[in-house]
Design goal:
The complex is a heterodimer of chains A (330) and B (179). Chain A has 12 helices and 10 strands. With 330 residues, chain A is of the alpha+beta class. In chain A, strands 2-3-4-5-1-8-10-9 form an 8-stranded antiparallel sheet, with helices on one face. Chain A has a two-stranded antiparallel sheet with strand order 6-7. In chain A, a hairpin with a 3-residue loop joins β6 and β7. In chain A, 46% of the residues are buried. The mean pLDDT of chain A is 92. Chain B is mostly helical and 179 residues long. In chain B, 46% of the residues lie in helices and 8% in strands. Chain B contains 7 helices and 2 strands. In chain B, strands 1-2 form a two-stranded antiparallel sheet. In chain B, 17% of the residues are buried. Classes of the chains: A alpha+beta (330), B mainly alpha (179).
Chain lengths: 330, 179
Amino acid sequence: MVFSTRIRLARNVEGFPFPGRIPPDKRTELERRLQHWIHEVQVADQVHYCNLHGMSGLEKQILMERHLISPELVKGSGDRGVTFAPSELVSLMTNEEDHIRIQVIRSGLSLKEAYEAARNLDHRLEERVPFSFHPRYGYLTACPTNVGSAMRVSVMMHLPALVLADQMDKVFQAASKVNLTVRGFYGEGTKALGDVIQISNQHTLGRSEEQILETIQRIVPKIVEYERGVRTRLVNESRIMLEDKVWRSIGMLRYARKLSSAEAMDLLSAVRLGINLKLVPQITLPEVNELFVITQPGHLQAMRGGELPEGDRDVARAAFLRDRLQPEAN
Amino acid sequence: MKCQACGKEDAHVHLTDIIDGEKRTVVLCESCAAEKGYVIDPGLIQAAATQIQKLIAPWVPTAAKSGSSSRTPETEVTCPTCGNTWSAFKKHSRFGCAHDYEAFGERVARLLESIHGTSEHQGSAPTRARAAMERRRRLAELREGLRDAVDREDFEEAAGLRDQIRLLESGDGDGGPSN
């Protein structure tokens, strides 16, 4: 139910305008210096750095599907980059909306662990980099909604039963009561594809980091309980409807000739629910999680060796899923 | 939409006739309508316009109304470092550089209050700014204590707190971006 926890810290460097207003030559210089500092800090034993300036659309798409970069960094222009560990559990975007965005991901609900890792990185960078900080307003950011702690905590959750039972409104209401927002799979402003939502703090100023974490720590288990309760109810009261939905989805995945990525994610979401409820012994959770990622447009095209127009992609996706989900011959 | 009679002027007059149960609408410009005997009293039109203006006045920013409570037109402010202006900020919702926060003054504080419910940072600080943050918070605590003591008419405690405040304040200056 809880896929992952993500902690993001935004920081800006003194002496440079924010990325939205920085002249190209200064941007290039800053990107180079940030690279140098990040390298010094030794984020991990091994790191990859990509400068998105001049990168193909497909490569950017893949980085985004892996949640290493945001849609905003993809849409941006000029020198900007991402440094990440091969584990993909830590990534630093440079010259996105702010100069630096540290991102740490951990699986499940692991707020303390993720926060400590992010803080540790922040401290090591701070020893070398003069961060813009104001005694009244805190860490200064390009967007006023991020100022202060400049920390965004997001927990990614899979809530198929709540969606099925049309109870997502209650989740939105419960979240907004404690100033948490609910967003879709790719973050700000995206749809809830595959019944996956992200819950994050709305405010970054006026609360300590510990207070923000505590709120999320309190609410997420309640939502998990809620989802669990609805799943139990569905199994007890509407088992046939559930089984039908799950097996129809498997049927579509096994036999359809074309599938969009949105369709595939919704179908896979139903399969995942079926596996959780022990209705589908033939398919495993790791398998379906992997399929969730590699049927996305960037990954699919990379697997097929190159860019494909959307129509061809949908056909390729269906073919790939048919192949992967064939019932095993006994 | 052009006048259906002369085809030249813009039509603002819509005339609807119901003849033998059938509804027909004709659109005419003011001169053609007048020619056909439909006299429009300009006074009536003006009165209607004023009524509508009154209805929507609370939501329409006019020269006399602005974001500031002093009801004077907002003056333009420019950040001396990056050249970003307050109106550019309002348009894009993005600051140009760290110095905008000071350059735009109290408007920033008010904006942050409307977004976050407060304009005071309570979280962590970079090591070099930690001492200043501690002092700042201690001062805020003492000032609140002082207000409370005065309310309770405990002037002895108030005097003690006031002395502590003076002591803290006499250190390096408070406020402004750290460096």
